[in-house]
Design goal:
Blueprint (H helix, E strand, L loop, with lengths): L1 E7 L5 E7 L11 H20 L5 E5 L5 E5 L1 H4 L5 H20 L4 E8 L2
Parallel strand pairs: 1-5
Antiparallel strand pairs: 1-2, 2-4, 3-4
Helix pairs in contact: 1-3
Length: about 120
């Protein structure tokens, strides 16, 4: 199962996320759930880097269960970055749509946890 943890700052703005695990929907290379999640997450990180001034701290490990963690220090500190926040909310919207359709393979934890 893919587990998504959404981190929010004191203003409840998304300031990071961690995604770990594998969907297990199908064999590697044919898993549409893993592919959809990976595409959304990687595209979001790339879009934030290309189209905003937001600094990103991220780490990834495809081995050992697979995970990617991304934090945005400026948003965490309460500094507003509308474009980065919009991209993160769009990513979460897409992940939520995947969860609604494939809830046996992805679980989102968005309870306002802090980094």
């Amino acid at each position: 199962m893919i587990k998504v943890k959404v981190y929010r700052n004191s203003d409840f703005r998304i300031c990071g996320f961690k995604i770990s695990g594998h969907a297990g929907y199908a064999e590697s290379g044919s898993d549409i759930v893993c592919a959809a999640v990976s595409m959304l997450v990687i595209n979001t990180i790339n879009a934030i880097e290309k189209f905003t001034d937001e600094k990103i701290n991220n780490s990834a490990d495809e081995e050992n269960g697979g995970h990617i963690k991304c934090t945005l220090p400026l948003i965490k500190e309460g500094k507003h970055n509308h474009d980065a926040e919009l991209l993160l909310e769009a990513m979460l919207y897409g992940l939520t749509n995947i969860e609604n359709e494939y809830s046996c393979y992805i679980k989102i934890n968005d309870e306002g946890g802090r980094v």
